[in-house]
């Protein structure tokens, strides 16, 4: 069977990409080598930058039958090849500039409080006011234009971005991260700057910018989406600072830039960020692809595999010779926890408590009701804490959601994203199948959840597949 979103490499990847190996949506930074693996041996174009173009590599995969040739992916890879070719000389020029700057600073006896192994680290102006950063910025070469890929669920946006990311040399400062995870880290850094570093005003955002720069200047975001007003209000200042310091942005999204944060509070204050994004990135639409390759993989499975995959999703009222769906759901929980001690527990999340009503600590399995997880105010940090603690999560009494229940819908989207990123095995007892869980009103374009739930539904389907269930849980490695 041909698969459009699979390669033989061991790279980390995002939601559009179906792999046979581990996945992480945590920050993937280089020069750190992942888990001791020799990445240079995993892909013929990885790390050398000269062997072949992304398109050449993609065409060879298509000829071998490992991917299905897709015109939208070819268009995206063409633009990514352009950026890759421009990034390599840009990196070399940056390296030379930084070496000159380091020699000058060393000669002046100036201490660089931000000395990092990263080739792209810079001394922040607030940490070393005698040098200032105006001259540094004037000496920096102009970065190449980044790329913003947007398109439907499963069209291969993340797959294309991962090919680009993995093809860049290990010596180049680069990082890859799911966007909501990135913003969660930004707010943590701001809290640290204020409460631990005792910084104030502009010093706070400058501290965050320099912390981000220290991880690398090629910044790849998966699933760029803005739904939180706190994120919306800081993005312009944050990204202006990053771009002024030479950061190159590559992003994937289900929405074009002009539709980001559509209908959000104080959106007029967010519009300058959209202008900045469009000015500094080439926008590539992948909406011409009508195929969700993740669902193709699932639906093309044999009947035997499909039956096995369906055993983790139980629908109320389904005719099953083995018994009522709820009984089968509970039987599976008992079988997996193997008579271990079952009790409640509390997870500490940044000083707050997340209550887990039913858990086997011995086997790292938890059980919740839908309203335990989504009925009260919870966010990405809470769901990531659960995903990092339990490799299997049972959720019962999942209802059919209504359009006006936007808070429940939003929390469910974030929950599924978090579980998916950590490869958590998800067992559900629900009122309906994923395709009928939330009826989308396509005429209401002011609600981001309308678009985001398409991805959630696709992920729920994939999480039932044998391919997903074979993946290794990565929450324990975070």
Tell me the structural class: alpha/beta
Number of helices: 16
- The beta-strand count equals 12
Strand order of the largest sheet: 1-3-4-5-2-6
Walk me through this protein's architecture:
The protein is of the alpha/beta class and 478 residues long. The protein has 16 helices and twelve strands. The strands form two sheets. The chain has a six-stranded mixed sheet.
List the helices and strands and how they pair.
Layout: E1 28-30, H1 54-63, H2 71-107, H3 134-139, E2 146-150, H4 157-167, E3 174-178, H5 179-195, H6 202-213, E4 218-222, H7 229-244, E5 248-253, H8 271-280, E6 281-285, H9 293-299, H10 303-310, E7 313-315, H11 325-337, E8 343-349, E9 352-360, E10 365-369, H12 370-374, H13 380-389, E11 392-398, H14 406-421, E12 425-430, H15 448-462, H16 466-469
Parallel strand pairs: 2-5, 2-6, 3-4, 4-5, 7-12, 10-11, 11-12
Antiparallel strand pairs: 1-3, 8-9, 9-10
Characteristic terms for this protein:
478 residues, single chain, globular, six-stranded mixed β-sheet, 41% helix
What's the gist of this structure?
Helices cover 41% and strands 14% of the residues.
């Amino acid at each position: 069977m041909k698969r459009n979103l699979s390669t033989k490499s061991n790279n980390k990847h995002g939601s559009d990409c179906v792999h046979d190996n581990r996945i992480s949506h945590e920050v993937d930074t280089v020069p750190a080598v992942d888990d001791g693996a020799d990445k240079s041996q995993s892909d013929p174009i990885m790390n050398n930058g000269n062997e072949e173009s992304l398109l050449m590599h993609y065409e060879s995969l298509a000829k071998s039958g490992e991917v299905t040739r897709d015109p939208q992916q070819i268009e995206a890879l063409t633009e990514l090849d352009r950026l890759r070719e421009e990034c390599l000389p840009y990196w070399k020029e940056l390296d030379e500039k930084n070496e000159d700057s380091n020699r000058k600073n060393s000669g002046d006896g100036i201490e660089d409080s931000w000395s990092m192994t990263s080739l792209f680290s810079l001394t922040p102006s607030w940490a070393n006011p005698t040098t200032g950063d105006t001259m540094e910025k004037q000496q920096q070469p102009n970065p190449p234009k980044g790329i913003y890929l947007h398109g439907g669920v499963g069209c291969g946006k993340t797959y294309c971005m991962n090919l680009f990311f993995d093809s860049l040399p290990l010596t180049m400062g680069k990082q890859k991260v799911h966007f909501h995870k990135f913003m969660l880290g930004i707010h943590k850094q701001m809290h640290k700057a204020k409460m631990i570093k005792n910084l104030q005003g502009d010093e706070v955002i400058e501290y965050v910018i320099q912390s981000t720069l220290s991880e690398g200047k090629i910044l790849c975001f998966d699933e760029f989406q803005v739904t939180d007003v706190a994120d919306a209000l800081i993005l312009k200042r944050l990204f202006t600072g990053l771009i002024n310091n030479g950061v190159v942005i590559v992003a994937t999204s289900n929405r074009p830039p002009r539709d980001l944060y559509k209908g959000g509070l104080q959106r007029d204050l967010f519009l300058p960020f959209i202008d900045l994004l469009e000015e500094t990135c080439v926008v590539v639409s992948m909406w011409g692809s009508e195929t969700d390759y993740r669902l193709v993989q699932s639906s093309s499975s044999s009947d035997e595999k499909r039956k096995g995959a369906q055993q983790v999703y139980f629908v109320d009222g389904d005719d099953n010779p083995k018994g009522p769906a709820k009984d089968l759901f509970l039987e599976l929980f008992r079988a997996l926890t193997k008579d271990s001690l079952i009790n409640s527990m509390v997870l500490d999340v940044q000083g707050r408590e997340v209550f887990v009503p039913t858990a086997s600590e011995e086997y790292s399995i938890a059980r919740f009701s839908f309203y335990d997880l989504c009925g009260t105010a919870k966010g990405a940090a809470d769901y990531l804490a659960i995903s990092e603690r339990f490799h299997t999560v049972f959720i019962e009494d999942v209802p059919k959601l209504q359009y006006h229940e936007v808070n429940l819908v939003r929390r469910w989207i974030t929950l599924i994203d978090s579980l998916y990123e950590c490869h958590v095995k998800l067992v559900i007892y629900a009122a309906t199948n994923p395709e009928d869980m939330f009826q989308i009103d396509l005429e209401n374009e002011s609600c981001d959840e309308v678009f985001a739930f398409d991805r959630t539904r696709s992920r729920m389907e994939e999480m039932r597949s044998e391919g997903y269930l074979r993946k290794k849980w990565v929450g324990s490695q975070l």
